[in-house]
Amino acid sequence: MSGPILDIYVASNLVGTLAEEAGSGVFTYLPDVPAERLVSLLMPVRAESYVWKKGLHPFFQMNLPEGYKKDRIRETLGPHADVTDMGLLALTGANSIGRVQVVPRGTSPGMTGGNVKMSDLLASADSRGNLLQLLDEGVTQGISGVMPKALSKPGEKATVWTEEFILKTGFDDIPWLSVNEYLCLEVARQAGLEVPETRLSDDGQVLAIGRFDRTKDGKWLAVEDYCALKGLDPVEKYRKGTLEDLAKLTQEFSSGDNVKENARKLFMLHLLNIALRNSDAHLKNFAVTYTSAEDVRLAPAYDIVTVTVYPRYKTNLPALPLYGKRVWASGKALVRYGGAWLGLTTTDMTDSVERVTAAVQGVLPLVRECADRFPGFQEVAKRMLDVWAHGLEDIKADAKPGKSEPAPLREQAGLSDPNGLERRKETNPYADPDGAFSHKAR
Asked: Which domain of life is it from (predicted)?
């Protein structure tokens, strides 16, 4: 063996070891590990070792830091710090989403989550700046590659974990990203999908999202994204995945009553991503949770953003292709996908379309509320509603893109008059941008 040997824990129970041998990752379960303490759905409990010839197994790569985070670890710990995949896993593996913890051999896993007083950060005058400082200070916290990728690059976002929440923010070239995601997740919630609790900072720059990797009684849940389930390295999340893959993997790992329920949720997520023009719905932005291989459920909705509302991403296409094409699927293509790949009935699909449409309508007052509260968000809000209006046309079973008149969502939200917001400021209870903001826990 070469390199470090790591101990693998599942829900605080030692279950196996991970090592390197001739460039391959080798994971081995300890004797007598119960079947329900599996590390990954691709690695059920067995006596034989799991060998991954391309290095670290995809599951263990799932939460590795990348980009900025990786660079900051090297800068903080010195140029000789081990920033190989195994070295990074040894540094950050005790803090990751899900019930699996990875620590150096003989080390007990500590508590996860950062020491962040979230209420103070959300109420601070510069929540974004304070969050970035926390991220910079906690460079060895186990933050996934799906979170900060390179803070110095346009279009990225930064994330910090606490014991109960994930705190996220964006940057100047993607303004009001936190409010954008907050509203998109509210649409998902009103459509009937499970969505973690969300809280928005007083200045609208930071979004707090409840962690969904534990139950209400404090038990850890396993979390595995679809990139890992497909056996892919994270860098392949765009290149090798398809919507058909999501359907196949969902059917493969679901069982019992969860088969139909997971299929319905996945179809609803597709409709939402199309309606809200979320062009970043790649393999890592879908996941499952489970307590055992017999209880696999689609994870709550997360990372839903109207990406195309920003000028530089206006022409972005969906991250994953359908039937070999990366286009905003509509009408018959969606019906065909829901029926042939997910086994849904026409009634199922019609119900999903109606739920998404009603959810968008139901969130319009909240869009207006946010536009009133955050004047800088007003123009983004208008563009979001324009995008959503066209998206709602696409998800209809009889959709004819470009040939129908979309719903006047701007008008319905009271945002069509460019001067209307200014005229209402005197009666707006949230007019003081420095005043206290009493957020609803959603």
From this structure: Bacteria
Cα dihedral sign, 370-375-379-380: negative
Average pLDDT, integer, range 229-239: 83
Q: How many CB atoms lie within 10 A of CB 204?
A: 22
Query: Each residue of 354-374: pLDDT tens digit?
Result: 999 999 999 999 999 999 999
Q: How far apart are the first and last CA of the chain?
A: 49
Greatest pairwise CA separation for the chain in angstroms: 71
pLDDT digits (tens, 9 = 90+) for 191-225: 999 999 999 999 999 999 998 998 888 889 999 99
Helix or strand holding residue 52 (H, E): strand 50-52
Residue 101, strand partner residues? 9
pLDDT, tens only, 14-57: 999 999 999 899 999 999 999 999 999 999 999 999 999 988 99
Of the candidates 120, 118, 166, the residue with the CA atom closest to the CA atom of residue 143: 166
Burial of residue 42, with CB atoms counted within 10 A of its CB: 0-12 exposed, 13-18 middle, 19 or more buried:
middle
Q: What is the pLDDT of residue 151?
A: 27
| pTM recorded for the entire structure | 0.85
**DSSP designation for 257:** T
- At residue 158 the predicted structure's pLDDT band, cuts being 50, 70 and 90, is low
Third-level CATH fold of 223-420: 1.10.1070
Phi, psi angle pair for 155, to nearest 5°? 85, 0
Residue pair 176/183 in contact (Cβ under 8 Å)? The answer is no
How far is 62 from 329, CA to CA, in rounded Å?
28
Cβ-contact 44, 38 below 8 angstroms: yes
The CA-CA-CA angle for residues 213, 74, 62, to 5°, reads: 30
Query: Torsion over CA of 92, 96, 100 and 104, rounded to 10 degrees?
Result: 10
The label of the residue with tokens 């990074």 reads: 88
Outline where 14-170 has alpha helix (H): 58-61, 67-77, 85-92, 118-123, 127-137
Q: Are 26 and 51 in contact (CB under 8 A)?
A: yes
- What's the rounded Cα separation, in Å, for the pair 107 and 109? 6
Rounded Cα–Cα distance for residues 94 and 176 (Å): 32
Rama region for 387: left / alpha / beta (φ>0; ψ in -120 to 50; rest): alpha
